[in-house]
From TrEMBL, chain A:
Residue spans crossing the bilayer: none
Record protein name field: Peptidase M16
PANTHER family recorded: NARDILYSIN, PROTEIN YHJJ
Alphabetic keyword roster: Hydrolase, Metalloprotease, Protease, Signal, Zinc
Organism, scientific name: Pseudomonas asuensis
Organism classification: Bacteria, Pseudomonadati, Pseudomonadota, Gammaproteobacteria, Pseudomonadales
Automatic annotation (TrEMBL), chain B:
Pfam families, A to Z: Peptidase_M16, Peptidase_M16_C
PANTHER family: METALLOPROTEASE, PROCESSING PROTEASE
Residues of the Peptidase M16 C-terminal domain: 219-394
Record Gene3D superfamilies: Metalloenzyme, LuxS/M16 peptidase-like
Name of this chain's protein: Peptidase M16
Record has Signal as a keyword: yes
Region described as Disordered: spans on this chain: 465-485
Domain Peptidase M16 N-terminal: 78-211
Top-level taxon of the source organism: Bacteria
Leader peptide range in chain numbering: 1-26
InterPro entries xref list: Metalloenz_LuxS/M16, MPP/UQCRC_Complex, Pept_M16_N, Peptidase_M16_C
Keyword set, alphabetical order: Signal
Length: 455, 485
């Protein structure tokens, strides 16, 4: 999970989608079926406006990549726009643009997804284009030679010239000693230099199969219509054997890691990350729900603990955040980051000790009922708010399916969170907020000498 | 997450301009150009169906303009107040608009910051705010269940209408804004953007960043904020946009309550028109790998009659994602950039037209030359008929997307109300885009943009320059300028 894909705590709850009759909104009909070739299709009806979103999710991302071959999934995503049997390079984008569609794609460490938002009568075009590039991608070498330059520009823009992006990349490499989550999705610079078109052909052949994908369609459509369309365009694509996919598992207690990262910034930042399980890898999912709740108590709004206590009462930080992404294929991180309040003379050491006090308080004292009720109120409201966006609904479904969890799990989340007891919270805090699970980075302004020495 | 491209600032704003209506496009269809796509052959040639918006508008007793669309599908509503209280109203105190807006939810009688936050969050209500150059916004999203929305609205009206601007939070917000200014120093794109606006607008109120300046921020007192709030958050200076699960009488009651809670007073006078800038290049030395390039001229105000023609003209040059002249030449044929975008930002008075991109430093000068050549040629020749037809279809086809959610609708309402556009603005705009000719687009672009008058800012390191790679022409794409029929 790159820093870009990480949802904030506030948004974390937007993943929840439990049907609650108390909300007085009818739950949209949701249909699920699997074609003979293994392509899973999930359709949610939302008839508010005559539009539709189509998302095709592949279970492939940077956490599947091996040393020396990093950045393949993301580069392949770029090359998916460079032509297939029915379309020349770049042509599909022009067709979709002509139809008024919004389209794009994104890659994370666990999945690669392609999407189109368009007027509902145009859905067949989106599906035909997706099916064509799933089955017959051309991958021309001359197109790759230019596209890899574009990708290098993307890396410079998002990572090399972004001090915090760069710092987070280095932080992740230390925080995940054993799993593929250490790999930056964009790829290491040395690997981008030596990547070639044959690497990408192999990656495409290995992973872009119907039985490794989920098609999610949300909008003004019926389940039956989409089923027929999916069968028509994707049904003939043969199923293929897939390479074994291993969950990215971590050492539970790798030992404390401390980094000093001088970057081109004026403002120091502290990053702390604890190695913790994710939803798909946890032995005991109560721990996962407890960690989610802790994240909400710390940073689930302007009234949450980090804002109230560290930022306003103690004036220790100018900003602080806590985040936990449970929806990963493998083991995850519980992240804290904060900027010291320099005007009040606070240092990174002060911030680290202040954050530890917050964690120790969770180990010692259970949260008040009022605090828990506030979290619950926000979860319930966000269940409704999320439904204002067909894209958000589709993304929640696609993300869960792509990490190997049924989208039906969304329906249980509110109940799961409510089932967490104060004892669960304390146990989770005591289990996971330990020094042997911790990576700490002091991100500091680099000196003039360091700046001049940089290539 | 890494994506194939991402929109530059402003692109999303221009997307929200689009509204819904049925069009009578006479554009030729694209099916013939892509014979292998079966689904495209089968597609109806008619423009897509669009959700019909019944926009209702009225004024409150205190003079606030209200814009309302009923949308009962979800048990929630969105309320968005747009004040003419952006940084163009800062006067001699840059940053005061942003600070006033940021201080709204930091204290009311009997409640401090935390109590206010708890108040909203206990109800599952979202309060949000922001200040820009023309406008300052305060929004509420709440469940429409009266047990939630009633207390949420009560709190919201007190926060927006009667903030107390206490001293301790003021120090904290000031500190955060000063930190934000410091933080921007590590971002070459932000540095270039600030310098650009300064060069483009000189002494005009659009010139300074909304965050203000260090000196000015340090001088602001609670009394300043109270005076600014009294003037700029007056009922006569706001547009109240509402959409969601509400009847007209409910909407009227909400608008009346909001309006009554605000200070009494008229709309603020509009900002003056800017003087023309001096063309030329400014370079900011920055130790990055890429050089950021921005080219700009003063563009148009929101009510400009040429807007539809310019919108189409820009879509062809560099608006949106792939397929524009700039993206094709700079990224697709030469691999020089991750993204290059152009766009008009129509504002209360002439907002900027900008072209922005980043490239590796050793290519920056020649890439700038390439971009200038593309603009020169385009402004001279105008679009081809095929480019224009494609752009018309794109605009018509994307219309249904612009009113698909409550958040999109409330943003459209706020924009129409704030710039005092007619209620049928979206329809009119759409019809205009569908009837404009290639000559009209060329004339409008040439009237508003002079290829030799660009204000240019570059930010990056000084390094030896390399020649550009040769462009690659794709054999199977028809060259621009050849009509299909």
């Amino acid at each position: 999970m790159t820093v870009f894909s990480r949802r904030t705590t506030g948004l974390l709850f937007s993943l929840l989608c439990a049907p609650l009759t108390v909300l007085a909104a009818e739950t949209q009909p949701t249909h699920e079926y699997t074609l003979d070739n293994g392509l899973k299709v999930i359709v949610r009806e939302d008839h508010r406006a005559p539009i539709v979103v189509s998302q095709l999710w592949y279970k492939i991302g940077s956490s599947y990549e091996t040393p020396g071959s990093t950045g393949l999934s993301h580069a392949l995503e770029h090359m998916m726009f460079k032509g297939s049997s029915k379309m020349g390079p770049g042509e599909a984008s022009l067709v979709l643009r002509d139809l008024g569609a919004t389209e794009n794609a994104f890659t994370t460490d666990d999945y690669t997804a392609y999407y189109q938002v368009l007027a509902k009568d145009r859905l067949p075009v989106a599906l035909e284009l997706e099916a064509d590039r799933m089955a017959t991608l051309r991958l021309p070498a001359d197109e790759f030679s230019r596209e890899i330059e574009v990708i290098k520009e993307e890396r410079r823009l998002r990572t090399d010239d972004q001090p915090m992006g760069l710092a987070y990349e280095r932080f992740s490499a230390a925080a995940y000693p054993a799993s593929g989550y250490r790999t930056p999705t964009i790829g290491w610079p040395a690997d981008l230099k030596r990547m070639n078109i044959d690497d990408l052909r192999h990656w495409y052949q290995s992973w872009y199969a119907p039985n490794n994908a989920t098609l999610v369609v949300v909008g003004d459509v019926t389940g039956e219509d989409v089923k027929q369309m999916a069968q028509k365009y994707f049904g003939q694509i043969p199923k293929r054997d897939l390479p074994p996919a291993k969950r990215p598992l971590e050492l539970p207690t790798p030992g404390e890691r401390r980094l000093t990262l001088p970057v081109r910034t004026q403002i120091p930042t502290l990053m702390m990350g604890f190695n913790v399980p994710g939803f798909a890898s946890a032995d005991n999912q109560r721990d996962v729900h407890a960690l989610r709740l802790i994240s909400a108590l710390l940073d689930g709004g302007y009234s949450a603990r980090l804002s109230t206590q560290l930022e306003r009462e103690q004036e220790l930080v100018t900003g602080a955040s806590a985040s936990y992404e449970p929806y990963t294929r493998g083991d995850s991180l519980f992240m804290l980051s904060a900027m010291p309040n320099l005007q009040k003379g606070k240092t990174l050491a002060d911030v680290e000790s202040g954050l530890w006090k917050q964690l120790d308080a969770l180990k010692r004292t259970p949260p008040s009922t009022a605090e828990l009720e506030r979290v619950r109120a926000q979860v319930i409201a966000n269940l409704v708010y999320e439904r204002d966006s067909i894209t958000a609904q589709a993304s929640s479904i696609g993300q869960l399916e792509s990490i190997g969890v049924s989208w039906h799990e969304m329906d249980n989340e509110l109940a799961d969170l409510q089932s967490v007891t104060p004892a669960d919270l304390q146990r989770a805090a005591r289990t996971y907020f330990t020094r042997d699970r911790l990576t700490v980075a002091n991100v500091i302004p680099e000196t003039q000498t360091q700046q001049e020495a940089r290539p | 997450m890494n994506a194939r491209f991402s929109y530059a600032w402003g692109a999303l704003l221009s997307l929200t301009l689009l509204g819904g209506c049925q069009s009578t496009s006479s554009a030729i269809d694209s099916a013939a150009a892509h014979p292998k796509l079966e689904s495209l052959q089968a597609l109806s040639k008619k423009p897509p169906v669009t959700r019909t918006l019944d926009i209702q508008s009225w004024k409150t007793a205190e003079g606030a303009r209200v814009m309302f669309v009923e949308a009962n599908e979800l048990p929630m509503y969105d309320l968005r107040l747009t004040f003419a209280a952006g940084s163009s109203q800062d006067g001699n105190t840059p940053g005061i608009a942003t600070m006033t807006n940021g201080m709204l939810n930091e204290g009311i009688a009997g409640m401090d910051t935390t109590a206010i936050a708890i108040g909203f969050e206990n109800l599952g209500a979202n309060f949000s705010n922001g200040a820009y150059r023309d406008m300052a916004v305060a929004s509420l999203r709440t469940l429409s269940d009266p047990a939630k929305s009633g207390p949420a609205l009560d709190l919201f009206t007190r926060v927006v209408g009667q903030p107390t601007f206490p001293a301790a939070p003021l120090e904290r917000i000031r500190n955060q804004l000063l930190t934000a200014i410091e933080y921007k120093k590590q971002d070459p794109g932000a540095q270039a953007g600030d310098a650009l606006m300064k060069q483009l607008y000189g002494n005009h109120p659009y010139a300074h960043p909304s965050t203000g300046t260090v000196e000015s921020l340090k001088s602001i007192t609670p009394a300043h904020l109270r005076a600014f709030h009294q003037r700029a958050y007056a009922a006569g200076n706001v547009v109240i946009a509402l959409t969601g699960n509400l009847t007209r009488p409910q909407a009227e009651a909400i608008a009346a309550k909001v309006s009554k809670s605000l200070p009494k007073g008229p709309a603020l006078p509009s900002v003056a028109k800017p003087l023309p800038p001096k063309a030329g290049i400014t370079h900011i030395e920055f130790p990055s790998q890429q050089t950021h390039l921005i080219l700009a001229e003063q563009g148009i105000d929101r009510r400009d009659p040429d807007y539809a023609a310019l919108y189409l003209g820009n879509q062809i040059l560099g608006g949106g994602g792939f397929g524009t002249r700039l993206m094709t030449e700079v990224r697709e044929k030469r691999g020089l950039t991750y993204g290059v975008y152009s766009g008009f930002t129509p504002m209360q008075v002439a907002g900027p037209f900008t072209i922005s991109l980043q490239t590796r430093a050793e290519m920056s000068q020649n890439t700038l030359g390439l971009v200038q050549d593309i603009i020169r040629q385009y402004l001279k020749e105008g679009p081809t008929q095929k480019e224009l037809d494609d752009a018309k279809r794109e605009v018509s086809g994307s219309f249904p997307l612009s009113t698909a959610s409550n958040s999109a609708i409330v943003a459209q309402l706020g924009m129409i109300g704030f710039y005092d556009l007619p209620l049928n603005f979206l329809d009119t705009f759409m019809k205009q885009t569908q009837t404009v000719t290639a000559d009209q687009v060329r004339e409008a672009m040439a009237k508003h943009l002079d290829p030799e008058a660009f204000v240019i800012v570059t930010a990056g390191p000084t390094v030896a320059q390399q020649p550009l790679p040769a462009p690659v022409e794709r054999g199977n794409t028809p060259p621009p300028g050849v009509p299909e029929h």
